[in-house]
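Run log // design_07
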């Protein structure tokens, strides 16, 4: 968080506007119980590490009771902790420890769907068609002879049809229920008041326990077109994991929910002065659509994924940054930049393709992109391991893969296990200090040998590591008025190079090419993503300068 008091002459400072939040994927962070799966006590033990890195807060991936069909995004009880991850007492200790260290805590809340083991879904299965129990979900009769065809042609995001047929309590094949992800994740019917009321209870449950806000899963979801009509182009709706089926996502009613949740947060803020944050996972087609989710009385922030999906190309980056600044900053909110998360191929690997393996190109570009992101106006999210420069693990054998996408599609194309491999902390061999278990304890996904190079102990000891780049960038963000919230001004550059000025004299430039170019500022950089001699900006490198008049 930069120390602004005044932005454009107005006092607009709210902590979240330029916060840097670290995403903790709990099962892969640190295992304190020795079962090979990370847990909440492990997160607590890792807080000093995160304090040293300098982040403003953490977002915890779901740790609620769950059969783990989609690693916790299938919630069976929204107001408890799965024993795999700890218990409520451990959760309270974590929140208290984070508060002592000045680290804010955001929880992941999953309102679009629950687990098929959720008691209300069990009740719905046991109840009759047309019952109030079924009305909390989307149950419908099938089409065709004997209702053997799904009620409409929608595809699920993770492969296969979006409907599964149930067996009625009397043993006959019966109705179908809607699930936009896996069959283990039935979609809630948000047109039922009870559903909304239960989520409000959940919000208050965790706010009462001291959390600073929520990351909202699938925040453009929740409402479906009331008639559940056929889609004109069902293939397109599910072509990528982030495709938008216009009948299932982004319905106007969802904005009323965010207005209500915002009001709940404001109520807590009015009580104790601590501002709570709602950040949405919003996948919609344009920056303009996205901006509607962050209007002043809705979500504070929504992840801006266009930067993450942009190819390594100066024009592509400039276009998405300009659109975001224009459409999102225009709402009065700030842009929420993100390059990595638990659903995406890590930047080191993504930007490396199709460069030959071992060229280091992907790693250099990922470092440059990080420095660019940290210089942009707004908030930024860092996914665990990103600060270590971890690559995607691309060669996990089929038999260890756990992503339901693999099971549902039979293809490795979109799978997410490779960015979820447990973090290396120390030592030369797996488990690299990840688990406190006895020798031989295996992490839930195997760690490759080369993770030794990226272990946090090693990264902290090497000032050239990615860890130091992130730490230095965060320190400068905290120290310099020019960084964080505010605006940017593009500078003229040669093709393949982006440069912009922030506030009074800070310049950030990125060379997307591979050959060196003259630096836009003559002095020594404050910080650079790689070796950067004075006067030169080498290829695949970003740097920050103060341009003294
Ligand atoms: C979000 C999550 C992803 C999850 C999906 C279904 O996209 O980030 O991990 O599988 O929602 O809940």
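design_07 sequence
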């Amino acid at each position: 968080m930069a120390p602004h008091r005044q932005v454009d002459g107005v006092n607009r400072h709210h902590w979240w506007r330029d916060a840097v939040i670290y995403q903790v994927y709990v099962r892969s962070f640190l295992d304190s119980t020795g079962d090979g799966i990370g847990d909440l006590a492990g997160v607590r033990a890792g807080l000093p590490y995160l304090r040293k890195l300098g982040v403003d807060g953490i977002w915890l991936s779901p740790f609620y009771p769950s059969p783990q069909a989609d690693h916790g995004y299938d919630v069976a009880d929204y107001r408890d902790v799965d024993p795999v991850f700890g218990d409520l007492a451990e959760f309270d200790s974590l929140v208290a420890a984070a508060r002592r260290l000045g680290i804010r805590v955001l929880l992941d809340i999953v309102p679009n769907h629950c687990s098929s083991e959720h008691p209300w879904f069990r009740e719905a299965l046991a109840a009759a068609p047309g019952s109030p129990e079924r009305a909390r979900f989307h149950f419908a009769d099938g089409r065709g002879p004997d209702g053997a065809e799904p009620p409409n042609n929608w595809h699920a995001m993770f492969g296969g049809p979006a409907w599964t047929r149930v067996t009625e309590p009397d043993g006959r094949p019966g109705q179908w229920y809607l699930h936009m992800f896996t069959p283990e994740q039935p979609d809630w019917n948000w047109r039922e008041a009870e559903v909304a009321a239960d989520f409000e209870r959940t919000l208050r449950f965790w706010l009462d326990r001291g959390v600073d806000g929520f990351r909202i899963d699938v925040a453009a979801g929740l409402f479906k077109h009331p008639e559940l009509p056929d889609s004109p182009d069902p293939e397109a709706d599910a072509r990528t994991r982030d495709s938008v089926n216009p009948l299932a996502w982004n319905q106007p009613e969802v904005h009323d929910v965010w207005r209500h949740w915002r009001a709940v947060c404001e109520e807590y803020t009015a009580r104790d002065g601590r501002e709570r944050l709602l950040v949405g996972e919003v996948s919609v087609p344009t920056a303009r659509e996205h901006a509607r989710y962050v209007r002043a009385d809705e979500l504070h922030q929504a992840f801006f994924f266009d930067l993450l999906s942009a190819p390594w190309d100066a024009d592509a980056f400039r276009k998405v940054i300009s659109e975001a600044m224009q459409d999102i900053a225009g709402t009065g909110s700030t842009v929420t930049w993100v390059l990595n998360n638990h659903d995406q191929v890590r930047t080191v690997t993504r930007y490396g393709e199709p460069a030959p393996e071992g060229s280091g190109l992907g790693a250099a570009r990922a470092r440059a992109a990080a420095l660019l992101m940290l210089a942009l106006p707004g908030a930024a999210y860092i996914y665990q391991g990103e600060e270590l420069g971890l690559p995607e693990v691309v060669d996990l054998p089929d038999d260890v893969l756990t992503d339901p996408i693999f099971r549902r599609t039979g293809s490795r194309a979109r799978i997410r296990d490779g960015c979820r491999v447990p973090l290396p902390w120390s030592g030369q061999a797996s488990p690299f200090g990840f688990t406190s278990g006895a020798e031989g304890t295996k992490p839930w996904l195997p760690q490759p040998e080369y993770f030794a190079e990226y272990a946090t102990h090693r990264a902290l000891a090497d000032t050239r590591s990615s860890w130091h780049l992130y730490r230095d960038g965060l320190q400068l963000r905290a120290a310099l008025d020019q960084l964080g919230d505010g605006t940017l001004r593009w500078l003229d550059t040669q093709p393949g190079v982006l440069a912009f000025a922030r506030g009074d004299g800070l310049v950030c430039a990125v060379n997307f090419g591979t050959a060196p170019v003259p630096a836009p500022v003559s002095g020594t950089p404050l910080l650079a993503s790689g070796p950067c001699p004075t006067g030169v900006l080498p290829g695949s490198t970003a740097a920050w300068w103060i341009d003294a008049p």
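The chain has a mean pLDDT of 94.
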